[in-house]
Amino acid sequence: MPTAAAASIFPRLTRMDGYYGSYVPVLAIIVVGAVLVTAMFLGNRLLRPSRPSPEKQLTYESGVDPVGTGWAQIHLRYYVFAYLYVVFAVDAVFLFPWATVYAGLGWVTVGEMGVFIGIIAVGLVYAWRKGVLAWT
Amino acid sequence: MIVQALGVRTVDDLSEFGTDPWWLSLIKAVLIFVFLLLLTLFNIWFERRVVARMQHRAGPNKNGPFGLLQSLADAMKLMLKEDIMVKAADRLLYVLAPVISVIMAFLAFAVIPFGPVVDVPFTDRQTPLQLTDLPVGVLFVIAVASVGIYGIVLGGWASGSTYSLLGGMRSTAQVISYEVAMSLALVAVFLYAGSLSTSEIVNAQQRLWYALILLPSFIIFWVSMVGETNRAPFDMPEAEGELVAGYFTEYSSMKFAMFFLAEYINMVTVSAVATTLFLGGWRAPWPLSLWDGANAGYWPVLWFLAKVMMFMFVFVWLRGTLPRVRYDQFMALGWKVLIPVALLWTVAVATIRAMTLDGGLDRRVLVGGALVAVLLFLLLSIVGERAPKEEPEAEEQPFDPFAGGYPVPPMPGQRLPRPEPAGVVPGGAQPDQEDDTARRSATEEGD
Amino acid sequence: MAEERVVGVGAGAAGFGGYDRGGGEPGGLATQDMVLNIGPQHPATHGVLRLRITLDGERIVGCEPIVGYMHRGVEKLFEVRDYRQIIVLANRHDWLSAFSSELGVVMAVERMLGMEVPERAVWARTLLAEMNRALNHLMFLGSYPIELGAITPIFYAFRERETLQQVMEEISGGRMHYMFNRVGGLKEDLPAGWLDRASAAVAAVRRRVPQIEDLIFGNEIFLARTRGVGTISPELISAYGVSGPIARASGVDFDLRRDEPYLAYPELAEEGVLRVTTGEDGDCHSRFGMLLEQVSVSLDLADACIARLRSLPQGPINQRLPKILKAPEGATYCWTENPLGINGYYLVSRGEKTPWRLKLRSASFNNIAVLPEVLRGCVVADMIAILGSMFFVVGDIDK
Hints:
By secondary structure, chain A is mostly helical. In chain A, 57% of the residues lie in helices and 0% in strands.
């Protein structure tokens, strides 16, 4: 039961082997990863040749000399998608904790969450109607 | 906190984690790296061999037994290659991008359970076959996957090349579209498991896999995990027909190898997540589970691997079978199919679950709910973009035989003007002068 | 004010510049027309074709094929080679239909000389030309799915190509540039037992080609990417002189094998073996389907030729030629239905041992010329699908 788990975890918040203790191994992965990446780069540096020339360092553009840089001012076509993404990502983040505790709360929370999802669905339908989801 | 049921010791609650001594955690972390690196070498070989079989080829079979060392040889080759950094690149981000990609790919595996609690050899300690677990385990995986995309986006941006930039942009759009579907598909799992922690979700599937009772979630998750890892048929970020190589066009040597590594680890990661959430994780599949020892000791690692490889095979199968989806079709699939279906399914599962928890099933509620669901679905499928405005018909243009600077034929509806003999001038004007003017005007028209 | 800026290619290269999407108010930003370069070194162009594409947002507003990166001045070279040597050059511009391209030259010279070709040679030529057609189409049946991201069909296509290639190699010694035609017939007689092997190869290919169809032709992603994409109207086809399978896919019922018969085609058409199939839609999908159908027709024709060659009495397969071959003064135009379309040679001779002028009309050049019209108004994402479905060989464009 998650509630029981939470109860057994909270008193140990202050101890490193408790709640935060479970995050420490995540750091271990990052440390080992950093070591690995460093080793890879070092090995690469020792083994590889390095003879740069101006031609090599040109960016590739279908065989013609590149004009300007790749950093053009770009119209992000999908910025509307990005907005929608934020909406739905937050939606999902709200749904996650709800999903874990909902078993104990019953019909009321189902109704509430239904309303929440309904509003978001209407938003999606609205965006759809407005033609935002068309990619042209 | 270790239950002794059927000879299987499983993690009872999260307090099991965080009690390992530091050396054990370090060993586990290193083991995860070793496991993933070996699995990547194996998977590259596996993919090449399987695709080769599908294409009447042999595939790599020279280096090592069955060609198993081929990927290692390729990795060594990449290590020996000159590292070219293009002038236009942003140096710091250019180096950082593959590093982010690769470390984030490893990181997600911190919370994947490989098996139950086992004895550590040579000691009297017991430890779960999982580096750690968090109360928000799955959320952690999703978060890490999102950060991993930064590697691709930054790599595309830092290369200073248009192809890379576009590849990176596509990747972003793809991920933001498919991550939503992915997350929403998981809500149903949490509804049933009552937890976000991976080990508890595995425990909750002791009797029945969620892939069976939550089939729509499973399918949505599966589709979006292919989209999330940029694999065929959703591999637009590296569509070689259009973007050459996409975000890693300008990468070479070790940095290229890292992107490659990250891609394959990501495939394993999503496969492992799918296994954990839907296929009962490390638990033995049905006929095997009749044997009591199947879920004890180190055996479950084998079942886990087998399930992961099943997903890997499907990845390879898709690549060998399907053409690439066009970009807008892909986005439409995500936003117009997967997300609405996932939303509806979440509501449906919540309702059904509440009913079963309530005990008695009220027929009217069920019918009403189904009706609402059907109505919502119809609403979603009926709406669509408003018809695009008709563009005004292009006006009939007089025929210009040199449109664009080179000779062109008359278009349908245009008429070829009757050629006038050059230099033949009616009337009594001086032939030479007239001839010159005519020629000059003809040249001007030509431009 | 259209400001031009050159950047790389990309189907996602949407909305560069201050282009505002979806009917919104541009918000004061000037719309930039952007120029994209596809090629000369780009994986989608199978060689060194370059397309200069002008974009307005996602839409292509203009496209200019820039050709000539592979120009070898073949027409000028023709003028300083004698007729035997010209065959070598002639089979090189379209390296996928070498035999058919040789055929045009020798037929033009034969016509000028008024030379009769032995009957066996006529049927053998027809057989080899049709096998060459199947080989060519199989190449595109494999490479087009690759453009769309399906990597498997090409291996199936190459297995079939290999089967046919083997008999072609056995008879001519070449795998691409067969160099098997001679003025007055073929280089050598058919090897003993070759007809059986050719017949077996054709049967094997006929049995296995449907696999390619099953692999890709009905695939939903394939349909979504090709149906209604890159439609060419019959009027446009006539305006640009587009020919071959691309023209027939648009419903233009024109095939030189039937409409201006050469070799043994009149007889084959009478027997009903030579079927000219036409499509309706003129989109990428029907162009691809046209290749599939043409392969099966070619295999039927090959079978009919093999059967006829078996029943023909023994006899010569070429004519004895003088040491110095001179075409009499005059001019002739000889065109043939090459796999990719009409391939024509306009031969002007002044009675020398070299032609005074030999104009080459190659199929791909005209077929690619229509691209600006097809691509105009398309979204960039469809460009690769359309480009691939124009079935061109760069050497055939640039000559």
